[in-house]
Amino acid sequence: MRLGRRLPRSFYARPTLVVARDLLGRVLVYDGPHGRRAARLVEVEAYLGRLDPASHAFRGPTARTTVMFGRPGVAYVYFIYGNHHCMNVVAHRPGVAGAVLLRGAEPLEGLGDDPRALAGPGRLGRAFSLTIAHTGWDLVRSPLHLRAGAPVSPRDVLRSARIGIAESVTSGKLWRFAVRGSSGVTR
DNA sequence: CGAATGATCCGA
DNA sequence: CGGATCATTCGA
């Protein structure tokens, strides 16, 4: 598969929900110490900052979350449950905060051949050896970045409530997007 | 189902 | 400074 061109800053400088949907089929690349790793994104969730009680940015900027109030196209990686590193892409219009959680992908290069190895945000983080030290990395310029890949047709996009966010179920927020039938999708 | 396991944040 | 919480995963 062709990885395509690096996504420009303008890709991320749009409403978070628009970016989330558009991220399906795009390619996460890390030219790291162990060579190139690449995977096709198949599951994401949008987190809408101060408007969204489930967002880490809901209560305003802190040492951990300040990056989500800044420049779009930057990585936000958090550590959760004492075990897992999960990666977000900062994405929003100017003046607000927002990010897209990368929840699942299909291995393309340098990631072995288990089709489920990147199914789930914690597993994706592990596969790419991500840590909170990657927070702040600029995806437009750094070895960790996103490429155009191939956008996914609307009929192949599933939309649902976010996983593990009870408030999202009761409020009917359908802010999770996934590629129908992909092995890299959770559940 | 529940345990693992630690960073983070809020309230005192 | 203590403890509640947590955008998860794995195994019984």
Can you walk through the features of this model?
The chain is 13% helix and 29% strand. The protein is built from four helices and eight strands, in the order ααβββββαββαβ. The protein is globular. The chain has a single domain, classed as Methylpurine-DNA glycosylase (MPG) (3-methyladenine DNA Glycosylase, Chain A), CATH 3.10.300.10.
Hey, roughly how much beta strand do the residues contain? Answer: 25-35%
Biggest sheet statistics: 8 strands, antiparallel
The first-to-last residue Cα distance is 26 Å
Poorly predicted runs are none
- The top level CATH class name: Alpha Beta
- Overall geometry comes to globular
Which structural class do the helices and strands define?
A: alpha+beta
Chart the SSEs and their pairings.
Blueprint: H1 9-12, H2 16-23, E1 27-32, E2 35-47, E3 75-80, E4 84-90, E5 99-109, H3 121-127, E6 144-147, E7 157-160, H4 166-171, E8 176-179
Antiparallel strand pairs: 1-2, 1-6, 2-5, 2-8, 3-4, 4-5, 7-8
This protein binds a DNA duplex (12 and 12 nucleotides) through strand 3, strand 4 and helix 3.
Note the main attributes of this structure.
alpha+beta; 187 residues; DNA-binding
Précis, in short:
The protein has 187 residues and is α+β, with helices and mostly antiparallel strands.
